[in-house]
Amino acid sequence: MPTRFLSDEQRRRYGRYAGEPTEEQLDRYFHLDEADRAIVGRLRGEHNRLGFALQLGTVRFLGTFLDDPADVPPSVLATMAGQLGLPRLPGLDGYRHGRQRWRHVALIRDRHGYRDFTLDGRGRFRLTRWLYALCWAGDDRPSLLIDRATAWLVGNKVLLPGISTIERLVAQIRHRAAHRAWRILAGALTPEQRQHVEALLDAGRPEPSMTFERLRAAPTRRSPTELIRSLERLDAIRARTIRPAIPEGFPPALVLRPLRTARAAGRPGALAGAAPDRHARRPPPHPRGGRSGRRARAVRGPRGRGHR
């Protein structure tokens, strides 16, 4: 089960400024209201006041505290300095390497309710349920799920964990959703249909013309003989058409997911290896959550909905 989905550049940008925020973002995330100004007003020194304001705006915008609190775009620095009424920017070297910045981190977390991902079980449970719903609806692209997870964490004041933690969570959710989809689709087949499918996907059969890969092969020459072969292949495909009774409410996008699996592998026979084995080990548990209780049910998805 792959757990690395992002490129090196995408991993580098995770939890960091990727450029100048827009005017709308500056107004939304970097505005200091009266309560913020009251806290800042009690701090001594311009460098402390500016440093606190930068950390507050950064965690609102990025969902994390930077290793260097002064490593912000110029527009962020100018916006905060203007709101604090600073005629010139104070030096932040002392703040960057001092202890006061860590006291400000604790103060911001306490006053504004920011929580650690690893310690917030309820937040992880809600995020897992939400991502599973997106994945089950057919929107299971890893990069998109990671972007959605990051936005959810920022909006719900949960501090971003390491990127590897998010990638593992997304991988486990996708694995469980795919396992559930395979189980439902396989359960919809009759014993006779199951035998036909296994025969079509068995590339080692003594009758290669009966396999799926052989039936889907396109004509290679323009000739009457090739045309006759194509028509015979079409008749064979029609004779072997399998129409399982898809359960009511099963997402249509998940029916196409096995086709994407075969295309990604470059051969339809990969479907045989992609289907979960009944005797294989169970998928790994949700991080820090175990297989039992609400967290395990969150990853498996609600029972009895859409696939009865």
Keywords:
1% strand, 16 helices, disordered C terminus, 2 strands, mainly alpha, 2 domains, two-stranded parallel ribbon, 308 residues
Describe what you observe in this structure.
- The longest helix is centred in the middle third of the chain and has 25 residues, at 163-187.
- Strands 1-2 form a two-stranded parallel ribbon.
- It has two domains: 8-113, no CATH class; 116-188 and 244-308, no CATH class.
- The chain is elongated and about 90 Å long.
- α4 crosses α7 (100-112).
- It is mainly alpha-helical and 308 residues long.
- Helix content is 58%, strand content 1%.
Q: Strand share of the residues?
A: under 5%
User: Helical element count?
Assistant: 16
Profile the largest sheet: 2 strands, parallel
Report the count of strand segments.
2
Radius of gyration: 27 Å
Structural domains: how many: 2
User: How would you write the strand order of the largest sheet?
Assistant: 1-2
Query: What structural class is derived from the secondary structure elements?
Result: mainly alpha
* Average residue pLDDT: 78
Shape: elongated
Query: What gap, in angstroms, lies between the N and C termini?
Result: 28 Å
Give a brief rundown of this model.
By secondary structure, the protein is an all-alpha fold. 58% of the residues lie in helices and 1% in strands. α4 packs across α7, α8 packs across α10 (163-187) and α8 runs parallel beside α16.
Topology:
Elements (H helix, E strand, L loop, with lengths): L7 H6 L9 H7 L4 H8 L4 H17 L11 H11 L8 H5 L2 H13 L2 E2 L4 H16 L5 H14 L2 E2 L3 H25 L3 H11 L10 H4 L8 H16 L12 H14 L4 H5 L18 H8 L8
Parallel strand pairs: 1-2
